[in-house]
Amino acid sequence: MIKRKLGNSHMSVSALGLGTWAIGGGEWWGDSDEQASIQTIHEAIKAGITLIDTAPGYGFGRSEQVVGKAIKGKRDQVILSTKCGLWWHDERGSEFFEQAGYQVRRCLEPDTVKRELELSLKRLDTDYVDIYFTHWQAVPPYMTEISKTMDCLMDLKRQGLIKAIGASNVTEEHINEYIRYGQLDVIQEKYSMLDRKLEHTLRECCEKNNIAIMTYSSLEQGLLTGKIGMDYVVDPKEARAGIAWYEPDKRAKVLDMLKGWEDLTKKYGCTMAQLVIAWTMVQKNMTYVLCGARKPQHIIDTACAAKISLTQEDIQIMNEAITKIGA
């Protein structure tokens, strides 16, 4: 498995990571089989995937609990990433969304960050986290200055409770504030061949400051696997709701594009999902690619994408097709 350095830290991390949002289940993902999820994490580790990403907000602690069970006895084999900033334990913070009886708020106050880490460490059954992300940034009316949040994170780092600091769902202004008050090693942002805003917004800033980029939703919740046809009906409550590319006219364009790449899947002996992941992995400064899975075979298949070496000619063919559909 390819490994890449995490910003200015001393960590070397697998270029492919396992995202565990779906493992948390809940309204967005439906029921999740715990044993299958644990086996999925074990298969990821066997395949050389060291990066396991989770968050308290994934199933309101459920994902962290499952990850904790899966890495028991294997802690030294993984780079464990979790998050803070989504708060539902009291009324502090700016209202964000309501689900499963919880009113979730965006809050990055030092004491809530510390409390979230305590709860995460307990659920994960570990005494430290390798990468600790601010999941969402503070917004009015309950603002917390990044200087205060970063002072807290740097203190947690000095205590050895976290090893590296990350930020998610950020702007360039956020990044500049973070690095003004401490060491920011990585950001986590949505990126796919259908959603390339990151290339024009944060990539240059991260390159200039040696900040790694960790991408999520690179398969657009399954659309880029080619397995979701025109007959699929999106449930308004599921995670796919609101993604423009699932609209019938746009979906048809995506499926036509993928059909045009069938010769490439034959050439490389891979699935469409593996081809798409391989393309994502070679994009400039996209350091780590998170791929969700909650069935063992899915992560076994995903890991094979790291073995694909796309030619520049084929990358250009794919780029032209992507541009043609307006992505």
Q: How would you characterize the overall build of this protein?
A:
This protein has one domain: NADP-dependent oxidoreductase domain (TIM Barrel, Alpha-Beta Barrel). Helix 5 (172-181) links the parallel strand 10 and strand 11 (186-190). The chain has helices spanning 34-46, 62-70, 110-124, 146-158, 172-181, 197-201, 203-208, 248-259, 262-268, 272-281, 296-303, 312-324, and strands at 3-5, 12-14, 16-19, 51-53, 79-84, 86-87, 94-99, 102-106, 129-134, 162-168, 186-190, 212-216, 288-292. The protein is of the alpha/beta class and 327 residues long. The model has no long low-confidence stretch (mean pLDDT 93). It has 12 helices and 13 strands. The strands form 3 sheets. An 8-stranded parallel barrel has the order 3-4-5-9-10-11-12-13, surrounded by 4 helices. Helix 3 (110-124) crosses helix 4.
Structure summarized in a few sentences:
By secondary structure, this protein is α/β, with parallel strands linked by helices. It has helices at residues 34-46, 62-70, 110-124, 146-158, 172-181, 197-201, 203-208, 248-259, 262-268, 272-281, 296-303, 312-324; strands at 3-5, 12-14, 16-19, 51-53, 79-84, 86-87, 94-99, 102-106, 129-134, 162-168, 186-190, 212-216, 288-292. The chain has one domain: Alpha-Beta Barrel (TIM Barrel), CATH 3.20.20.100.
